[in-house]
């Protein structure tokens, strides 16, 4: 069902890889709500993924861009603004990758070179996106930027490894740049802390199935799905959330504020 919440708005979606991606689902919902879109991902992701299929569905051009490369980002924003014939109203930053996790290195044995790349890709890339938009004055007044995070930034999930540090830094960038962009142009910047979701990237974390099942039992409403998150992103891009900024918004069925549930107690008793 469409409510035309984004009619006339124009946005960039970073990170759609395949149908499991929250970015993919968000792009579809934004299109359904009337938005015009530009899609982007790394050249490798474009080769490995199915983004051209998504581009046909949402009638959007695709731009290859390394989110850590300022020159690539400048070309992306130039291309998007030319396509839209003006500024941009919203951005979804759905980007994250851990080299130490990929290489099977534990947190206590991490390769610091890998760690630097992880932080650049998963955290500072948001700063680079916002800095590029800032320098080019690409975002329209009262624009909205959303990035995706996880509660491991506040709590320990041992197998989430260095990504916990990356998400903590990502949330800090959200607050800090959100202050400056809000002051300058009333652009709001927020992070959404999503339930564990079976995306292609998320499912690669060791023990993912276990903590997804646990989170579901610990959440009064159960885990929030990728589709639910896409709907939440739409509301954050809409004019109904113009006064929400610099927030880390938990979208997890109540997991973040639940100490224990009877279902978990019963399961432990077994």
Q: What does this protein structure show overall?
A:
By secondary structure, the chain is an alpha/beta fold. It has one domain (10-269): 3-Layer(aba) Sandwich (Rossmann fold). Helices cover 46% and strands 16% of the residues. It has ten helices and seven strands. The chain has helices spanning 22-32, 43-48, 51-58, 70-84, 99-102, 112-136, 163-185, 208-218, 226-237, 262-269, and strands spanning 10-14, 36-41, 62-64, 88-93, 139-149, 188-194, 248-251. It has a seven-stranded parallel sheet, sandwiched between helices. Strand 1 (10-14), helix 1 (22-32) and strand 2 (36-41) form a beta-alpha-beta unit. Helix 1 packs across helix 9 and helix 4 (70-84) packs parallel to helix 6.
């Amino acid at each position: 069902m469409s409510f035309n919440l984004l009619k006339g708005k124009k946005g960039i979606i970073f990170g759609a890889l395949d149908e499991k991606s929250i970015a993919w689902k968000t792009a579809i919902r934004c299109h359904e709500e009337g938005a015009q879109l530009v899609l982007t991902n790394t050249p490798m992701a474009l080769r490995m993924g199915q983004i051209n299929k998504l581009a046909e569905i949402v009638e959007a051009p695709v731009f290859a861009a390394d989110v850590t490369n300022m020159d690539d980002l400048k070309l992306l924003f130039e291309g998007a603004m030319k396509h839209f014939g003006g500024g941009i109203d919203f951005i979804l930053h759905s980007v994250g990758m851990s080299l130490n996790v990929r290489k099977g290195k534990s947190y206590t044995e991490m390769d610091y070179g890998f760690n630097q790349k992880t932080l650049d890709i998963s955290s500072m890339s948001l700063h680079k996106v916002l800095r590029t938009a800032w320098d080019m004055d690409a975002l329209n007044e009262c624009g909205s930027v959303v990035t995706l995070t996880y509660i491991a930034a506040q709590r320990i999930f041992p197998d989430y490894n260095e990504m916990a540090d990356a998400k903590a830094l990502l949330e800090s960038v959200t607050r800090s740049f959100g202050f400056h962009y809000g002051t300058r142009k009333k652009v709001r910047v927020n992070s959404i802390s999503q339930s564990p979701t079976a995306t292609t990237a998320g499912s690669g974390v060791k023990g993912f199935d276990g903590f997804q099942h646990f989170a579901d039992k610990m959440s009064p409403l159960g885990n929030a799905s990728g589709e639910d998150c896409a709907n939440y992103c739409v509301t954050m891009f809409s004019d109904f959330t113009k006064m929400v900024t610099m927030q880390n918004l938990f979208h997890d069925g109540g997991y973040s504020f639940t100490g224990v549930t009877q279902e978990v107690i019963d399961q432990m008793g077994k």
